[in-house]
Amino acid sequence: MAVGETTNGHGNSPTTAAQKSVIVTGGASGIGLAMASYFAAEGHNVAILDVNSSGAQVARDLAAAYPRSSVAFHQCDVSSWDDQAAAFKTVYERHGGRLDVVMANAGVSEQGVTTVVNLLEDEPSEPRLKSVQINLFGVVYCERAPYPLPPREALEERTSCHNSM
Questions:
Q1: Number of domains making up the chain
Q2: What is the pTM of this model?
């Protein structure tokens, strides 16, 4: 399956009023996979954005299990603004000019050990910031990437955004 290819033939058709256009980052495994499965089971147009190429098989499996849905995989590094912006634009265009639901789920765990600073080093080294880039910047990019930005009036009518920061 090519990146961005829909597995059941419905991905280039416009999203109907009852169908939602859904993006799930980190949708190839874990909680993201559970989210993608839920939206596919509900019959929505689901785009899985994940850095892991296993997302292609996940999209095929979900499309086979839920034929009323449309499921596509887009290989995307959420810590890259360019990757996210391009993926959002592609999904927006393929889902008939809509993005209804964005689940900013992608993330990595340090398993209790910080990778930012190693206090046991003899000499300081450059901090390893990949977890910060994925877990923080990836969410910020996800919030900014919707393509195109909806008119202000539409946002005020339809959206409620609550941040914990």
A1: 1
A2: 0.78
Answer yes or no: is 76 within a domain: yes
Which residues span the domain enclosing 99?
21-153
Whether 7 is in a domain gets the answer no
What's residue 164's pLDDT?
42
Contacts 24+ apart (CB under 8 A), 31-38: 31/105, 32/103, 32/105, 32/106, 33/58, 35/103, 35/105, 36/62, 36/71, 37/62, 37/65
CA torsion 125-130-136-139 (nearest 10°) is: 160
Answer whether 69's CB lies under 8 Å from 62's CB: yes
pLDDT for 26 equals 97
Domain assignment of residue 2, yes or no? no
Query: How many angstroms separate the Cα of 60 from the Cα of each of 47, 52, 87, 109?
Result: 12, 14, 18, 27
Residue 74 lies in a domain: yes
CATH assignment at residue 50 = 3.40.50.720
pLDDT in tens, 135-165: 999 999 988 877 666 566 655 555 444 444 3
